[in-house]
Amino acid sequence: MTERTEIASLGEFGLIDHLTKNFETQQASTIVSVGDDAAVIDHFGKQTVITTDLLLEGVHFDLMYTPLKHLGYKSVVVNLSDVYAMNATPTHITMSIGISNRFSVEALNEFYEGVYAACNKYNIDLIGGDTSASQKGFVISVTAIGEVTPNRFVKRSTAAKGDLICVSGDLGGAFLGLTLLEREKKIYLENPQIQPDLENEDYIVGRLLKPEARRDIIDFFEKNNIVPTAMMDVSDGISSEVLHLCKQSNLGCNLYEEKLPVAEASKSAAFKFGLDPTVCALNGGEDYELIFTLKQDDYDKITLNEEISVIGYMTDLEEGCKFHTKGGNTFDIAAQGWNAFNA
Amino acid sequence: MTERTEIASLGEFGLIDHLTKNFETQQASTIVSVGDDAAVIDHFGKQTVITTDLLLEGVHFDLMYTPLKHLGYKSVVVNLSDVYAMNATPTHITMSIGISNRFSVEALNEFYEGVYAACNKYNIDLIGGDTSASQKGFVISVTAIGEVTPNRFVKRSTAAKGDLICVSGDLGGAFLGLTLLEREKKIYLENPQIQPDLENEDYIVGRLLKPEARRDIIDFFEKNNIVPTAMMDVSDGISSEVLHLCKQSNLGCNLYEEKLPVAEASKSAAFKFGLDPTVCALNGGEDYELIFTLKQDDYDKITLNEEISVIGYMTDLEEGCKFHTKGGNTFDIAAQGWNAFNA
């Protein structure tokens, strides 16, 4: 970067103008957008869905290996993923950021390029936010708003005994991408002459740095007249999420190792790092896939969709939450998901 | 505080359960609330209003003199103020916080006591959020959602020439409270034996630490069939806000010093600190009053409301934005509002 504009030279309002001037709203329902006290959206009888996420530098992302454009993109996508996980369609976001004067306007432009790329891809309006100085670190807060046909939203608590447990895409890739980048960071810090070795690792690095939300799955449900009985997105790891579904639905489950979808690229990366791909798939976070339960009668509707794997089924509460290995062993599922407060 | 529970001992989900377990939703429109991927609210043909604010420790608040309960209360109120400023009724909030392990669960309880007190007072449902570890400092992000009768919302850009400029309550008090508390903090840091001298300063301290949003003004509008032609809330200072109204409405204005509402307690505090009360009223932030413009024909409707002052009127763009002093001088209004990026 050759140019550097101090953020102070624009001021907060100048900065907001600067960051939003090229963005046009897309939703017919956007009545008032950025530039007033609040945004107004019209709903035509649909129900409104709201979700929010806070992303903090050093906790949720490391700018040493996260390009700002990717960070902007991901900040939006992880919120959209929560809206899709309600079987809803995201329509609007607000984006608040806190930034220290270590960032230039050019750096922020890159971040917002990613934000707007995600908005364009998913047909979302950015309708507001707040831009603030921070003493230290980059703070990102996104709220996503969506709409859903009345009473077609899908909660976590409504699975029934016998329902199939399904997951979209594949698991563990983002965690392996993180493992790789953390390893390369450590090598670099010890010896800055060594260039990062990311060859052939595009897949897992992309899973971490540029995840996508599974709009295609929600569209598939609608086209095929499927309403899952329960659903959530996979952000903390499938073992943690399946325990949420069981707890909130007051049920147990059986999960099968042989059914867990793991990409070939993830398997070979796990092998390289001496990790068990199954453990990565169960406990790795940030895959942003959808986990959902289906009535067994709906099984025929999903068999032709290669992006959906059936990984188990719901049982009575008394049967517990069980994981069956390829070798024939059975374990209780434990949430190994990351507890940020122990970090 | 005698008890101290480490946040890590609860984990994120335990913490969320803990913080939300005693909160019952109040709005009939709340269909899904805390505990799922996103919240669902129903609207019955009303329009949805969304606003969001990010509050960062050391930038927006100083925990040395801000009780956590007050901070929780204020975090909600400043967002509701933005919704009222649209002539809308807030109905729901999401609350995300980032906290370091310097905070105990008891400290967070105090914060949420304030959050829930504000929700109860203003009849708001807390419907979601995100709770995260932070490396340093307390991060608060609030999104407020409200509803408005279709097309009764009030923007900043729709004032007309000749409209009266009105403001609710009184101005400058929060800035004087901040001045007092910053002075006492400095004295304390220099000599911890000296106790803070806050006697008789309840009013200005309260204006800073426990502001209220002007729901009463919005209710008054509705009862008296008033729709302001433009409106915003006073967060950065009335001189900054009036320039926003003028710029966005493409107009000029005349403001009169003798008409600015300043409380007696604020006048005497300003006198004590050697400050000009008019400068405090013009440029002090965080009053969370409403500034709005009215057609002259509506003047009779507001004369009996002692909480509303007419402070000037809108003019043609070419006439500029003018401030007329008691002494008969005229100045161009300049935004002295705080630019956080220069701090």
Summary, kept brief:
Chains A, B: Mg(2+) 5 binds at residue 236. The structure is a homodimer of 343-residue chains. Chain A is an alpha+beta fold.
Describe the structure in your own words:
The structure is a homodimer. Chain A has about 350 residues and is α+β, with helices and mostly antiparallel strands. Chain A has 2 domains: about 5-150, PurM-like, N-terminal domain (60s Ribosomal Protein L30, Chain: A, 2-Layer Sandwich); about 165-340, PurM-like C-terminal domain (Phosphoribosyl-aminoimidazole Synthetase, Chain A, domain 2, Alpha-Beta Complex), CATH 3.90.650.10. Helix content of chain A is about 35%, strand content about 25%. Chain A is built from 10 helices and 13 strands. Chain A has helices at about 10-20, 70-85, 105-120, 175-190, 200-210, 215-225, 240-250, 265-275, 275-285, 300, and strands at about 30, 40, 45-55, 90-100, 125-135, 140-150, 165-170, 230-235, 250-255, 290-295, 310-315, 320-325, 330. In chain A, strands 8-10-7-11-9-12-13 form a 7-stranded mixed sheet, sandwiched between helices. In chain A, strands 3-6-4-5 form a 4-stranded mixed sheet. Chain A has a two-stranded antiparallel sheet with strand order 1-2. In chain A, strand 1 and strand 2 (about 40) form a beta hairpin. In chain A, helix 2 packs parallel to helix 3 and helix 4 crosses helix 8. The two termini of chain A are about 35 Å apart. At the A-B interface, helix 1, strand 2, strand 3, strand 4 and strand 5 of A face helix 1, strand 2, strand 3, strand 4 and strand 5 of B.
